Amino acid sequence: MAVSTEIQAPRSGRIAPEYKRHGRSKGNFEMFAWLFMRLSGVVLVVLIFGHLFVNLMVGEGVHAIDFGFVGGKWADPFWQVWDLAMLWLAMLHGTNGVRTIINDYAEKDGTRMTLKTVLYLASAVVIVLGTLVIFTFDPCPAGAAADLLPSFCRA
Amino acid sequence: MSKTPAGTLYRGREGMWSWVGHRVTGVAIFFFLLVHVLDTALVRVSPDAYNAVIATYKNPFMALLEAGLVAAIVFHAFNGLRVILIDFWKKGPKNQAKMLWGVVGLWVVVMVPFLIRHLTLAFTGGH
Amino acid sequence: MQVHKYDVVIVGAGGAGMRAAIESGQRARTAVLTKLYPTRSHTGAAQGGMCAALANVEEDNWEWHTFDTIKGGDYLVDQDAAEVMAKEAIDAVLDLEKMGLPFNRTPEGKIDQRRFGGHTRDHGKSPVRRACYAADRTGHMILQTLYQNCVKHNVEFYNEYYVLDLLVLEEDAVRADGTPFKQKRVAGVVSYDLASGEIHVFQAKSVVFASGGVGKVFKTTSNAHTLTGDGMGIAFRRGIPLEDMEFVQFHPTGLAGLGILLSEAARGEGAILRNSEGERFMERYAPTIKDLAPRDIVARSMALEVREGRGCGPNKDYVLLDLTHLEPAHIDAKLPDITEFARTYLGVEPYTEPVPVFPTAHYAMGGIPTNIKGEVLQDNDTIIPGLYAAGEVACVSVHGSNRLGTNSLLDINVFGKRSGINAAEYAKTADWVEVPEDADADTIRLVETVRNANGTERVAQLRKELQDTMDANVQVFRTEQSLTETLNVIASLRERYKNISVQDKGKRFNLDLLEAVELGFLLDMAQVMTVAALHRQESRGGHFREDFPDRDDVNFMKHSMAYLDETAETEHVAGIRLETKPVVFTRYEPMVRKY
Amino acid sequence: MTAQNTEPVEPASKVELAPGIGGGGEIPSYDVTLRVRRYNPEVSDEGHWDEFKLTMYGTDRVLDALHKAKWEHDGSLSFRRSCAHGVCGSDAMRINGRNRLACKTLLKDLDTSKPITVEAIKGLPVEKDLIVDMEPFFQSYREIMPFLISSGHEPTRERLQSAEDRERFDDTTKCILCAACTSSCPVFWTDGQYFGPAAIVNAHRFIFDSRDDAGDMRLEILNDKEGVWRCRTTFNCTEACPRGIQVTKAIAEVKQAVLNRKI
Ligand SMILES: Cc1cc2nc3c(=O)[nH]c(=O)nc-3n(C[C@H](O)[C@H](O)[C@H](O)COP(=O)(O)OP(=O)(O)OC[C@H]3O[C@@H](n4cnc5c(N)ncnc54)[C@H](O)[C@@H]3O)c2cc1C
Ligand code: HEM
Ligand code: SF4
Ligand code: F3S
Ligand code: FES
Question: Which residues cross the membrane (chain A) (predicted)?
Answer without folding.
Answer: 31-58, 78-98, 118-137
